[in-house]
Amino acid sequence: MEVLQEDNGNKGRFFILENDVQEAEMTYTWAGSDKIIIDHTEVSDVLRGKGAGKAMVMKAVAYARDNGIKIIPLCPFAKSVFQKNKEIRDVL
Questions:
Q1: pTM for this prediction
Q2: What does the domain layout of the chain look like in residue ranges?
Q3: What is the CATH number of domain 3-91?
Q4: For the chain, give me the number of helices (H) and strands (E)?
Q5: Do residues 72 and 45 lie in contact, with contact meaning Cβ atoms separated by under 8 Å?
Q6: Burial class for 8, CB neighbours closer than 10 Å (0-12, 13-18, 19+)
Q7: Please, what sign has the CA dihedral across residues 81, 86, 88, 89?
Q8: Average pLDDT value for residue range 4-13
Q9: What is the pLDDT of residues 27-85, one digit of tens each?
Q10: Cβ within 8 Å of residue 41, ≥6 positions away
Q11: Phi and psi (nearest 5°) for 43?
């Protein structure tokens, strides 16, 4: 399962395609130049229960670490992933 990313400088998203169909998406908004706010996560029934949501959060964590930015998880799903995984809280 490959997590892709698009970013236009103001907003962005991490998403997963299956057979050229978007089946999962997690959107974010930039808050200044050093923070992103994850505001929504959606996973289709096709990928539900297969770790797609967590995979997108982990891709966001890797992106934050690589770029020296922080994450504000306003989305309840993303927030729950951070609560359950202490090892990724360095990007909060």
A1: 0.96
A2: 3-91
A3: 3.40.630.30
A4: 2, 5
A5: no
A6: exposed
A7: positive
A8: 97
A9: 999 999 999 999 999 999 999 999 999 999 999 999 999 999 999 999 999 999 999 99
A10: 24, 25, 26, 27, 53, 56, 57, 75, 77, 78
A11: -130, 130
